[in-house]
Amino acid sequence: MTTRPPLLDLYHWSTPVGAAVTIMLEESRLDYCVIPVDISKGDQFSPPFSTLSPNAKLPLLVDHDGPLERPFAIFESGAILLYLARKSGILLPASAEKLSLVEQGLFWVISSFGPMIGQSHHFRHYAPEPIAYALTRYDGEVRRLYAVLEKRLAKQGYIAGDYSLADLALIGWVRLHERHDVDLSAMPGITRWFNDMMARDTVSRGLAVGNEAIERRFSPA
Q1: What is 96-200's CATH topology?
Q2: d(CA 50, CA 90)
Q3: Is the pTM of this model over 0.90?
Q4: How buried is 8 (Cβ within 10 angstroms: 0-12 exposed, 13-18 middle, 19+ buried)?
């Protein structure tokens, strides 16, 4: 008996945005394959990956059973999360108001929280020499964004109220809080949220997906 390969290929390297997608795949229980793309060697700029991703950035998902019953590639982590939510029918509230709250939280992480932390990491750990202005600029913005997050999580369990795509997008960044010199002990709302997230089996499994090729099946082929 032959086995059908998973219909989803995830081009992946272990990054905060990649973690959001692997967690979502674990939540959705859709069979998938991980295809490593080593960004430390610049493999994202070479075929076959560069022919699939217009922006030559990870992650990238290829659904071999796409909307028109043919392979369909999706780039940008937020777009991938929304695509998987629609495909699997999970983590998308039916209420227009609740859905808008999820979208607001998700887009805030993608457009503000993640990019500012990414810039902070770059100038802290990868710049050839310290640049005082850049460190002041991005470290200050990181602290401002953490304050925004703490204010929200001090009042409710998750970013959008209920567990959602926004939390998946966020956890990969917050678990690196020590790397951008943020002390969570003074932020009880974020600390409680972080501990709750890390205790979820799907989050643990998604974060455990590393830089090796794997095939993940949730049901018999």
Answers
A1: Glutathione S-transferase Yfyf (Class Pi); Chain A, domain 2 (1.20.1050)
A2: 30
A3: yes
A4: buried
